[in-house]
Design brief:
The protein has 4 helices and 4 strands; from the N terminus they run βααββαβα. The chain is α+β, with helices and mostly antiparallel strands. It has a single domain, classed as 2-Layer Sandwich (Alpha-Beta Plaits).
Length: about 100
C-alpha cells in the first residue's frame, strides 16, 4: 500500500480551536481507517509544520480525498508527499534506461 506523509499547519481557526484538537485527531484517524488507510504515525512538531501524519492509503485518489476532507474542516492546511520505501526506490533506479 502506498505511503503518504502529510505536513500540516494550523490555520487561524485551528489555533483558536486548539482545545478540541485531540477529538479532531481521533475523528481524522477513524476517517482514514474507514477509507481503508492505516495510520503509521502522527506527531505534533516544532518548526515550520505543526503536525506530521504518516499513513498507508490504498490509492492516490483516496489519499487526496482524505487530505481534502481535513482541509475542508478549516483547522489545518496540508502539504502531502508520496513516499517510496527504500526497496521500491532501488527497483525503480535499477530499471532506469
Amino acid at each position: 500500500m502506498p505511503t503518504y506523509i502529510s505536513l500540516m499547519k494550523f490555520t487561524d481557526q485551528g489555533i483558536r480551536d486548539i482545545r478540541s484538537a485531540p477529538k479532531q485527531i481521533e475523528e481524522a484517524v477513524k476517517t482514514l481507517e474507514a477509507m481503508g488507510g492505516k495510520l503509521i504515525g502522527f506527531y505534533t512538531a516544532l518548526g515550520e509544520y505543526d503536525y506530521v501524519l504518516i499513513a498507508d492509503v490504498p490509492a492516490d485518489g483516496l489519499a487526496l480525498a482524505f487530505v481534502l476532507g481535513l482541509g475542508s474542516r478549516g483547522n489545518v492546511r496540508t502539504t502531502t508527499l508520496r513516499a517510496f520505501p527504500q526497496e521500491e526506490f532501488m527497483e525503480i533506479v535499477k530499471d532506469l534506461p
